[in-house]
Amino acid sequence: MSKTDRLADLKKEYTSCALCKELVNNRTNIVFGVGDPEKCKLVIIGEAPGYYEDVKNEPFVGKSGQELNKLLASIGLSRDEVYITNTILCRPPENRNPKAEELKNCRARLDKQIEILNPRLVITLGNFATQYMLDTKQGITKLRGKVVEKNGIQIMPMFHPATILYNGGKNLHIFEEDFNNVAEILKLPPQKREQQRTLL
Ligand code: SF4
């Protein structure tokens, strides 16, 4: 069975998931994830769907998503060539952090998604997703850019792309450094990366 089919089966299992009572009443969609399972070597995990993600049924849309797209393009990757999902699939009310019980409820799905996709690298975006995936209390400032192996998965934490907007682009060089390291790890062809950069 192909990765695409296995992922489609998993998605079906969660079509009417009602494990998290508070989230069921708040969500418009169950935002499963986007990307080409056959091509992707990189999985990106954020915290949870926000307003636009919930409405459009796609993770990382809106302004942060646009920043993420630009960063991916800077190393020659499109959204289709990575897979993007979140720690939980349903939008929390008022965009609060996911609760421990919700994370637990959605964990088997996340683990299964990663197992099926079998990526070369997982990026966690922001403090919440990073601390959750690495099971640590250490902050993102210390952890960003360093690849850590956890349960057999290579994980690289990064700042959330929303911070580019908050900081008026002052921290963009940190993202460029981290994404260049991602390109090295994934062995992306330098020529393609240079071509993409000139398009930005
Ligand atoms: S967050 Fe995950 S476990 Fe909770 S209701 Fe949504 S799909 Fe189900």
What does this structure look like?
This protein has helices at 3-13, 21-26, 51-56, 62-74, 100-117, 126-134, 140-143, 162-166, 172-185, 190-199; strands at residues 34-35, 42-46, 83-86, 121-125, 148-150, 153-158. It is globular and about 45 Å long. The model has no long low-confidence stretch (mean pLDDT 93). The N and C termini lie far apart (38 Å). It is an alpha/beta fold. The structure holds iron/sulfur cluster.
Order of helices and strands: HHEEHHEHEHHEEHHH
Measured as a percent range, the helix fraction is 40-55%
State the shape: globular
CATH class: Alpha Beta
Bound molecules: iron/sulfur cluster
End-to-end Cα distance, whole Å, is: 38 Å
What's the β-strand tally? 6
Number of domains: 1
Provide the CATH architecture: 3-Layer(aba) Sandwich
Strand order of the largest sheet: 1-3-2-4-6-5
Strand content: 5-15%
Main sheet makeup? 6 strands, mixed
| Average of pLDDT | 93
Helix tally equals: 10
Q: In CATH terms, what is the fold-level topology? A: Uracil-DNA Glycosylase, subunit E
**Structural class, from secondary structure content?**
alpha/beta
